Amino acid sequence: MPELNNKVALVTGGTGGIGSAICQRLAAAGARIATTYRNAEKAEAWAAEQPYEPLLIACDVGNYEECVRLKETLEAQLGGCDILVNNAGITRDATFKKITPEKWQQVINADLDSVFNVSHQFVAGMTDRGWGRVINIASINGQKGCFGQTNYCAAKAGMHGFTMALAQEVARKGVTVNTVSPGYIATEMVMAVREEVREQIVAQIPVGRLGRPEEIAGLVAFLASDDAGFITGANLAANGGQHMH
Ligand code: NDP
How many domains does the chain have? Predict the structure, then answer.
């Protein structure tokens, strides 16, 4: 029997590069998949390509009220959320001198406020049922910093602070909370970078290549499994050795 049979997994931003791979891997393990979307046309086209039937729920995860409605819809359709993957995120890069309050707020809202907004809907159900997984997708740049990304690095480092605090509050209720910090992954966003810039990035990665979305998905699926029940409050790096700590 697949490991995650009868579990419900909500992956925010599941239609994106890494999110798609996570959804597919959790579905292959037997989970029923729900994901948020903002653009209905794009989400429906994406859903039609998946080898399973995802539940699509319109939601801006930066908006608390929309997350309340997300919970109502998910519970009405699938009963509850056992595995929450906070994966939605954006970048709005600028050096500190040039960053605008708008770019700061957009990233903090989409990448960090969202983790509170969505988790707040589902963690109580997990603790009531005595089993749950919260997996926060942060970034190597939240661990080591990155030129031109004060907003993104603050948000991603903040995600792990949230992970460590919540992990302590729910540990005795069968719920684990962990952070996954990917390095550079070959998604559309990274592949759109000019080839010579990409070569410079790859030169800094000891394994000599970009990561694959499936490699992040495999780690998420492991954290979602019962085998990972003793791992909580951890920040797991998947970065090809680019940053070790
Ligand atoms: P994508 O841009 O491909 O996907 C991001 C997803 O998040 C999209 O589905 C997007 O929806 C959704 N999203 C963004 N903001 C919101 C919002 N406010 N409400 C709801 N959905 C939202 O990115 P990746 O797959 O590359 O990245 C996924 C995660 O991994 C991100 O958190 C990113 O920071 C992190 N990461 C990525 C790395 C990489 O190399 N790619 C490296 C390290 C971390 P929409 O299509 O509507 O915009």
Answer: 1
Here the CATH number for the domain that contains residue 87 is 3.40.50.720
Ligand 1 center from residue 13 Cα (angstroms)? 6
| Residue range(s) defining the domain that contains residue 188 | 8-234
Which residues make Cβ contacts (< 8 Å) with residue 170, sequence separation at least 6?
123, 126, 127, 132, 176, 177
The protein residue with its alpha carbon nearest to ligand 1, atom 19, reads: 60
Q: Is residue 240 part of a domain?
A: no
Q: Of 98, 92, 164, 93, which is closest to residue 134 (Cα–Cα)? A: 164
- Name which residue sits closest to atom 44 of ligand 1, judged by CA: 139
- Quick: pLDDT tens for 17-55: 999 999 999 999 999 999 999 999 999 999 999 999 999
Residue type, 73: T
**pTM for the complete prediction?**
0.98
For residue 222, tell me if it sits in a domain: yes
Distance 196 CA to ligand 1 centre (A): 24
CA of 18 to the centre of ligand 1 (A): 8
